[in-house]
Amino acid sequence: MSNSALKICVEALSLPREMRADLAHRLLVSLEDDPVKPEVEDAWKDLAEQRFENLKKGRTTSRDAKLAVRAARKKLCG
């Protein structure tokens, strides 16, 4: 790793958690071949926030990820 990359890394690691997550997301997206359109990314973010609000307000329930994947596989594969 170059000195400038190391310096950026050290600075990034000192950011608050939410800012590090946003930076990590942006870096990962930058590696994709097909850039994500901002309006599509915004729509996914809005949907995630809406689902989280519904969960917090008791309008929906959560399931264990392993059970959800198992149920999906059973539906798809029979």
Layout of secondary structure:
Elements: H1 3-13, H2 17-31, H3 38-56, H4 65-77
Can you offer a commentary on this structure?
By secondary structure, the protein is mostly helical. The protein has one domain (3-77). It is built from four helices and no strands. The longest helix has 19 residues, at 38-56.
Labels describing this entry:
78 residues; mainly alpha; 4 helices
Overall average pLDDT: 91
Sequence of secondary-structure elements: HHHH
End-to-end separation in angstroms reads 49 Å
Amount of helix = over 70%
Spans where pLDDT lies below 50 across 5 or more residues: none
What's the total number of strands? 0
Q: Percent of residues in beta strands?
A: under 5%
Q: What is the total domain count?
A: 1
**Biggest β-sheet, characterized?**
none
Shape: elongated
Number of helices: 4
| Rg calc | 18 Å
User: In terms of structural class, how would the helical and strand content be classed?
Assistant: mainly alpha
Entry summary:
This protein is mainly α and 78 residues long.
